[in-house]
Amino acid sequence: MELNSLRQFLVVARLEHLSRAADELRIAQPSLSRTIARLEGELGGPLFDRSGRLRLNDTGRLFRDHVERALGELDAGRRAVAEATSQGLGAVRLASETFLTLTGPLASYKSAHPAVEIELHWSPPEDMARRLRAQEVDLCVASQPIHAEGLESVRLFEEAVGVGVPLDHPLAGRASVTIEELANEPFVTAREGHWLRRLLDRLFAAQDLTPKVVCESDEHSAIADLISAGLGIGLVPAFARRSATRAPAAWIPVDSPDCRRTLTLYWGADSHLSTASRLMRTTITTWDWITGEPQDTR
């Protein structure tokens, strides 16, 4: 089996769509179809269900997991050799749902290790386990749990998530608020899949309610600005209140023990981490999230 064929298979398996996979790979679709057919012939069985939309079948999922691990180990070996022969620290690849929380430790790390190449990747949590197993990234920081085997983790911190409202909003002076009281309020929030949106939907579903979403945005700074401008209200983590660029708004605790987020660092249990990655892991796990400074580990 050719490595290029295996890499092409992984793209088709991820997208479950031949034409989109061909576009991403920048090859002709007939050529990609022949590659997949040849691979299935070598394996002795189909990897996809082709009744209607293309779907990865059980055999395909089994093969995908093995291919991800195999190619991940190969790439890790190349990086390990490059690190050993260059006598450097290597590089580090970090994925996260948001980098606002990580600006402090990232700045500190870059200051201490200016020669290290840092790659930052935005990633939804449902994609993080696959990327870690395939060793596409070294470390992941998630604001919601990743339930997958073969990962190790360290909880970084837990914090309350409150409601941000405009300063002139009727709720602005409240000491706390319930979900029921927010039932008819317009919400400005993140798109589906983001931890903030999942938390909002989960809190409302627990009360048999559905939030009234008037704006979805991938720009988290825009969410704060829209709340401040009076376009709606929204969930805001306590950490964001310490941001120097935050828009003026009132922050109200939510009367629910579940209105919280837990930030967790993940990495592959069997992955070879470069020296740069191990140093990044140490920087993040020893960061003082309250003061915004490195912890004194003496």
Describe this structure in words.
It is a single chain. The chain is of the alpha/beta class and 298 residues long. The chain is 39% helix and 21% strand. The strands form four sheets. Strands 3, 4, 5, 6, 9, 10 and 11 form a seven-stranded mixed β-sheet that branches. α5 links the parallel β3 (91-96) and β4 (117-122). α1 (3-15) packs across α2 and α1 packs across α4. The radius of gyration is 23 Å and the shape is globular. The model has no long low-confidence stretch (mean pLDDT 88).
Task: State the gist of this model.
Helices cover 39% and strands 21% of the residues.
The low-pLDDT segments are: none
Cα shape: globular
How do the SSEs run, as a string of H and E? HHHEEHEHEHEEEHEHEEEHEE
What profile does the largest beta sheet have?
7 strands, mixed
Tally of DSSP β-strands: 13
Mean of pLDDT: 88
Number of helices: 9
Q: How widely separated are the two ends? A: 52 Å
Structural class: alpha/beta
Helix proportion range? 25-40%
Keywords:
alpha/beta, 21% strand, 7-stranded mixed sheet, 298 residues, 9 helices
List the helices and strands and how they pair.
Blueprint: H1 3-15, H2 18-25, H3 29-43, E1 48-49, E2 55-56, H4 58-86, E3 91-96, H5 103-112, E4 117-122, H6 125-133, E5 139-142, E6 151-165, E7 186-189, H7 195-205, E8 212-216, H8 220-228, E9 234-237, E10 250-252, E11 260-268, H9 275-285, E12 287-288, E13 293-294
Parallel strand pairs: 3-4, 3-5, 7-8
Antiparallel strand pairs: 1-2, 5-11, 6-9, 6-10, 6-11, 12-13
